[in-house]
Amino acid sequence: MSDQKSPLLSRRDALKIIGATLGTALVTQVFVSGPLSSDAVQGIGATTHGNGVESTHKWSMVIDLSKCIGCSYCVRACQAVNDVPEDDMRWNIVFRERTETGSEFYMNRPCQHCDEAPCTRVCPVGATWKRADGIVVMDYDRCIGCRYCQVACPYDVRRFNWKEVTAENPYNPDWGSPEVKRRDRGVVEKCTFCVQRIDRGLEQGLVPGIDPAATPACVEICPVGARIFGDELDAESPVSRALQENQTFRLREDWGTSPKVHYINYANGRS
């Protein structure tokens, strides 16, 4: 019989404890004192992933609420290609809302991919960050499941994976095939603008927002063209034209998060 004792704490447990200590301070400062300076998060929540690197692209989405019919095709396609089998883990949600006058419309809410993302500022291990092209992504291998990013997000678009799901995805293959690895239990998940499609498409010379294979699944599948995607730095891109031709708004703009998802008002184009 071996006299060697097993460690009291696993590496992951130790990281969680460290992360909880650092994360508490960071979340408190974000909500009490406002956004953190870059110096405050250097070496804690900030990462070197793409920081200081110029990009020739700035990806954005426009959602036309006057066109959305609430079919939820976008939700199902997202769950299929990103392998999200559980409905309570949806990265992209569509729900019915009412205007002040009582008119019904369908609100859409994916990750907003903020330029000033609170989630990236509170992560104690640098598991979530903003790329040079503006997309906020996750490193699921680095995530310790502290959920501080989920608390800091003002849009409620991050989901914590409470359980190991081994069942087949009910949205495959009818709504698409998995393009990314399913995440493990104990991490936070979110919409990525289907970054795997964007990166692969660019390598193949495709144009995201125009070529279907390089475009987010939710945009590609929409039967009424209510979602538009593209590069804001390209004046001729679909998203740039939509922003030029329509009056748009962003969610909680007064919070200073500068979301990259823009909305065309429900009243536009409706009588």
Explained architecture:
This protein is α+β, with helices and mostly antiparallel strands. The protein has one domain (11-264): Alpha-Beta Plaits (2-Layer Sandwich). The chain is 25% helix and 14% strand. It contains 8 helices and 10 strands. The protein has helices spanning 11-33, 38-41, 73-81, 118-122, 148-152, 195-203, 217-221, 238-245, and strands at residues 59-64, 93-98, 104-109, 128-130, 136-138, 159-160, 188-189, 227-231, 248-249, 261-264. Strands 8-1-10-9 form a 4-stranded mixed beta sheet. A two-stranded antiparallel sheet has the order 2-3. A two-stranded antiparallel sheet has the order 4-5. Strand 2 (93-98) and strand 3 (104-109) form a beta hairpin. It starts with 10 loop residues before the first helix and ends in a 7-residue tail after the last strand.
